[in-house]
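Backbone-to-sequence.
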């Protein structure tokens, strides 16, 4: 969990789980069928479904001056690989200052109307200041950069229960995209434990993704992982900016949507490496905290509704199960991308619109890192 994030006392959460378990008799027997239905509705298709895992071929990335974007889709997945002259970064310095001396931004409470300014973009990151020259220098550290809304009674839950699942949802983001072990390539056991084990399609995807990653079964759709033999963290901070919203979903479930941009600074794993490269990942994950009286689900877990991912400098048309950032030498040897230009820090556009703009393009160009 991140700095400033309230925790749920064990006895309180256990009591909530016991309350949630009451009245489960008569629940549907196949939650995976519900998952297929949701995916079909989201994708507007008929016929056999492969929820959250469909893909479009991605192409290679751009060379100098810009960053390349690879677009994949898993309900919609865009992968962006970077590139400006020397750019870069992962896990900033422990004080979270990043660089530039500007005051930290308030937590995002609504979608911004425009992208952040670019005045400092020419400043290069360093091991001491891995977020220098990036808007992320003013973002929050870890979960502190992820805004939570005020809780209110919704669907089958009371106000207090909604507050708990909002914290639990942010806990999933910490376990899937911020946990140091997971970022070093370990299996995200804590995050997986929060996903409904009866949602068979999703469980099959998870089992396959870590064993044999591919375009259709890519763990990066939900988790941030780097191969520790190739890159290592700079410091112990991941900068984030985003927010969590919720509404009443199907069968009076509490449907939580998380839309967060993560900025990871890294250097090569070799001792003495000091060229910093930043990988930027924006994820939208929609979770359904279902009523156990209406859906077969383990209390304390959620069903996945959808997820969308947009990644800069994480690899283009590579399916190793790890984010694969490029440094200056690799970027100089890469051929230019042919997709649309994208600002990876621009949160004024929804993920749905971002995916629509990317379309079937392979590797586009990101305008900064």
């Amino acid at each position: 969990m991140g700095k400033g994030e309230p925790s749920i006392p064990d006895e309180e959460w256990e009591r909530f789980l016991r309350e949630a378990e009451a009245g489960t008799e008569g629940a549907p027997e196949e939650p995976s069928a519900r998952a297929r239905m949701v995916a079909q509705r989201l994708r507007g298709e008929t016929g056999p479904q492969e929820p959250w895992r469909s893909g479009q071929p991605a192409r290679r990335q751009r060379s100098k001056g810009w960053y390349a974007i690879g677009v994949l889709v898993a309900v919609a997945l865009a992968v962006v690989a970077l590139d400006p002259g020397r750019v870069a970064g992962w896990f900033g310095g422990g004080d979270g200052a990043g660089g530039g001396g500007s005051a930290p931004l308030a937590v995002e409470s609504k979608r911004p109307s425009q992208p952040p300014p670019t005045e400092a973009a020419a400043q290069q990151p360093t091991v001491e200041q891995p977020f220098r020259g990036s808007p992320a220098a003013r973002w929050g550290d870890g979960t502190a950069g992820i805004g939570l809304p005020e809780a209110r009674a919704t669907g089958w839950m009371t106000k207090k229960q909604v507050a708990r699942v909002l914290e639990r949802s942010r806990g999933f983001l910490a376990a899937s995209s911020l946990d140091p072990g997971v970022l070093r390539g370990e299996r995200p056991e804590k995050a997986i434990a929060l996903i409904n084990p009866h949602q068979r399609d999703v469980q099959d995807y998870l089992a396959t993704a870590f064993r044999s990653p591919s375009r259709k079964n890519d763990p990066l759709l939900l988790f941030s992982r780097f191969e520790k033999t190739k890159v290592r963290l700079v410091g112990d901070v991941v900068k984030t900016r985003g927010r969590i919203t919720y509404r009443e979903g199907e069968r009076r479930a509490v449907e939580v949507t998380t839309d967060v941009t993560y900025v990871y600074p890294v250097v090569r794993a070799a001792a003495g490496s000091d060229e910093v490269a930043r990988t930027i990942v924006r994820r939208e994950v929609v979770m359904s905290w279902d009523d156990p009286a209406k859906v077969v689900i383990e209390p304390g877990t959620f069903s996945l509704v959808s997820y969308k991912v947009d990644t800069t400098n994480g690899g283009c048309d590579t399916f190793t199960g790890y984010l694969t950032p490029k440094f200056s030498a690799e970027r100089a040897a890469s051929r230019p991308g042919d997709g649309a230009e994208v600002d990876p820090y621009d949160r004024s556009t929804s993920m749905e619109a971002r995916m629509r703009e990317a379309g079937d393009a392979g590797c586009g160009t990101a305008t900064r890192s």
